[in-house]
Amino acid sequence: MDAPDDNPAALLPPGARRASGDVEVAAYLGIAQERESASPQRPPEGGPPPLKPEAVAVVDYGSQYSRLIARRVREQNVYCELIPPDAPREAVAGLDLKGVILSGGPASVYSGGAPLAQPWVFDSGVPVLGICYGMQLLAHQLGGSVEPASEREYGFAVVRKNAPSDLFDGLDGEIGVWMSHGDRVGALPPGFRAVAYSDNSPVAAMANDAGMYGIQFHPEVAHTPHGAQIIRNFAYKVCGASGSWTPGNFVAESVRRIREQVGRGRVICALSGGVDSAVTAKLVHEAVGGQLSCIFVNNGLLRREEPERVRAVFERNLGLNLIYVDAAERFVSALRGVTDPEKKRRIIGAEFINVFEQQARSLGAVDFLAQGTLYPDVIESETSEQTASHKIKTHHNVGGLPERMRLRLVEPLRYLFKDEVRLAGAELGLPPEMLYRQPFPGPGLAIRIIGEVTAEKLEILRAADWIVMDEIKADGLYDKLWQSFAVLTDTRTVGVMGDQRTYQHVVALRAVTSEDAMTADWARLPYDVLARIANRIVNESPSVNRVVYDITSKPPGTIEWE
Q1: Residue 510, Cα to own-chain centre: how many angstroms?
Q2: Which of the four pLDDT bands, split at 50, 70 and 90, describes residue 403?
Q3: What would the pLDDT profile of 102-123 be if each residue is shown by its tens digit?
Q4: Of 130, 207, 420, 462, which cross-links 304 as Cys (Cβ 3.0–4.6 Å)?
């Protein structure tokens, strides 16, 4: 069993967010520098992968970070798919299966109803890597035993190699890792040997001669410094992958799938101004050309001057048919009196669809809605695809969509992280000003205003947010941060301004570093930057008399406040 709150704890040090040229960003799909050491020679980029692409299947046993394993495999230029524990043999029949990874998860293998590995995992003849719960599954199902650990291991630990293993090839005898488990292997299955141990786990890693490996730690997280090399060793040395999954292949395959899905239908694409919708629009346009119309909706929840900037950037760089809709009054009116953040998201999602369907009717027969949904949106919204994961919040473009929606969805980025989307965008030729814009939530400022959304509060927040962006950019910090923004809280405090008592709003500042928004750490902004931001906000916004700084990481908090 993984310990509760199985957490890669990306409590990144100051400035740890990967910038656009970072080797770890570039490593995904291999378009720039290499990670840690050279990977095998890649074939030239070109058309879509073969009908049966070589792949690693990642079986998801409910860890919030199972997708992170898949991401790490893809960073090694190896295609992979995430599948549920009960997936039948047919789920991988269309792949040239090179290996299987069993993820972590919250269950104990000896508990009733715990998810198990399907028979095909063991009889498919490909190597298997069990991570944490996955290792315990191997022990439990292959004749060993798993027991509660006398001392839980949670956090940084050191494992020591005690036998040769391709999995640890090139690593020192002592390996720093991230542990998160409450159970451990008590007895090895027949044919297995221990290849590493830790202070609290006599079997921290195990292997047999049939290419099956189990490790008690998490190589996919940032706190396992050589985790990428362990995954690379599994993909190349153990599974024999060739590394043919490239940006060109992803783009070509996405275009092919969109073309197959849409056929001769017409598509409208929701443009928000961010990289996700931009890459989505570009992919759909590459696939179906003039069958696509893009719609940018000013919902009244955008930042200062954003509608004008977005229109200019998209019209200049994408050359698409762009329809601008001013629906500000409609959205703000729909939110009147609403304070619950989940209800806000659902209202905004429903209103977006209403606007899109009205525009579709004006265009004639439209069949599809394309939108830039990413995997973090899906996993936090707990759709049917991720029933093992707990719902964090409803994203307006996932759980917030109305059931009666007539348009069918086209979501080519649904299983990508933000950095992966940026790399796909670079492959499509999108400019840096689009690719490296900080994420902005679909519900906009509505979820950065705690409580009811009003026109007055929107103007207060726009003024504060403008100052935050101005100072962050002036200090050269914008590209080093995942996000930086202001929140208008529902608290008022007493202050003294001009020798007079005030009772005004409190603005919270939020700045975080992150790799993919699944985890994040608060950014250690310089004190002088914080001082300038706070001073300007209270002086330039008469409705605010106090500024605070949020120093909460994710988890336990989320990046946005609502």
Answers
A1: 19
A2: low
A3: 999 989 999 888 999 999 999 9
A4: 462
Q: Is 395 a catalytic residue?
A: no
Q: Would 14 be classed as within a structural domain?
A: no
Is residue 443 in a domain?
A: no
Q: Is 181 a catalytic residue?
A: no
Q: Are 224 and 80 in the same domain?
A: yes
Are the C-beta atoms of 511 and 525 separated by less than 8 Å? yes
CATH of the domain at 129: 3.40.50.880
The span from the CA of 89 to the CA of 557, in Å, is 39
Are the C-beta atoms of 504 and 546 separated by less than 8 Å? yes
Tell me, yes or no, if 315 is annotated catalytic.
Answer: no
Same domain for 270 and 363, yes or no, is yes
Q: How many other CB atoms sit within 10 Å of the CB of residue 120?
A: 19
The SS3 assignment for 376 reads helix
Residues 398, 273, single domain; the answer is: yes
Q: What is the pLDDT of residues 486-516, one digit of tens each?
A: 999 999 999 988 778 889 999 999 999 997 7
Of these residues, 54, 75, 81, 220, which one is catalytic? 220
Q: What's the CATH number where 473 sits? A: 3.30.300.10
Find the catalytic residue in 132, 239, 269, 294. 132
SS (H, E, C) 381-429: HCCHHHCCCCCCCCCCCCCCCCCCCCCEEECCCCCCCHHHHHHHHHHCC
The predicted-structure confidence for 83-107, as pLDDT tens digits, reads as follows: 999 999 999 988 899 999 999 998 9
Taking Cα atoms as reference points, which of 69, 234, 55, 60 lies closest to residue 133? 60
Annotated catalytic residue within 140, 218, 396, 505: 218
Domain with 211, as residue range(s), is 23-238
Q: What is the pTM of this model?
A: 0.66
Inter-CA distances, 92 with 31, 62, 79, 99, 385, Å: 27, 19, 12, 11, 17
Whole-angstrom Cα distance, residue 311 to residue 306?
Answer: 8
Scored b (16 or more CB within 10 A) or e, 280-304 reads: bbbbbbbbbeebbbbbbbbbbbbbe
The one-character DSSP state at 236 is I
Domain identity same for 423 and 464: no
- 428 and 474, same domain (yes or no): no
Shared domain for 158 and 73, answered yes or no, is yes
